[in-house]
Write a structure and sequence with these properties.
Length: about 190
């Protein structure tokens, strides 16, 4: 069961300042998304080993949680997770999804369809940019593969960080941005 709180989300790597995000957004190539019909989630191998017995999901659960305890297999056995998307706090890891800030299909239709398997694997497991977030599972499912022109976090206080993170990931990977997506990001950055 979730308890609503206004906790601060865990610090994420690589979130640029708003001014930097605006500059990065301006530098992105504007191009209509292209769906070649060949997207498959399996083309982005994810939850690879980060260290020891910990995979990417487990690493993010530990990074983003509070008082997280893990067993020998690195599975979270207790802790709490604040979802910045909706402001909910969870005490069961099963209630938390690890969201790809820029969803895998959104990446595919904005340039990742030309990447090597190694680059797609890196992208799906990237712990060095603000790409992976521990969030409420049903909120992540509602987001699905939508961009910010079709979906925004329910918690408006997160708009600025969400846009800064989205832009940082697109910029880091040289992905394109659709016109409506760019406009939605610019609107969200205006809330910073």
């Amino acid at each position: 069961m979730a308890a609503r709180t206004e906790l601060t989300p865990a610090p994420q790597p690589g979130i640029p300042a708003a001014a930097t995000a605006k500059t990065q957004l301006a530098a992105l190539t504007v191009k209509a998304a292209y769906d070649d019909g060949k997207y498959n989630r399996d083309l982005f191998p994810h939850w690879g080993t980060v260290s020891g017995t910990c995979n990417t999901r487990e690493y993010v659960l530990k990074r983003d949680g509070a008082n997280v305890q893990v067993d020998a297999a690195c599975t979270a056995t207790s802790g709490s997770w604040f979802s910045p998307y909706d402001g909910a706090t969870w005490t069961a890891a099963a209630d938390v999804d690890i969201d790809h800030m820029v969803p895998l299909k959104a990446a595919w239709i904005s340039g990742a369809n030309t990447w090597s398997a190694a680059k797609r694997t890196q992208y799906a497991n990237d712990i060095d940019t603000p790409q992976l977030w521990a969030v409420t599972d049903n909120v992540n499912q509602a987001k699905s593969d939508k961009g910010p022109d079709a979906w925004k976090p329910p918690r408006k206080a997160f708009y600025c960080t969400y846009a800064r993170s989205w832009v940082a990931v697109k910029h880091a990977y040289g992905l394109t941005v659709a016109a409506a997506e760019k406009a939605a990001l610019a609107d969200m950055l205006a809330s910073c």
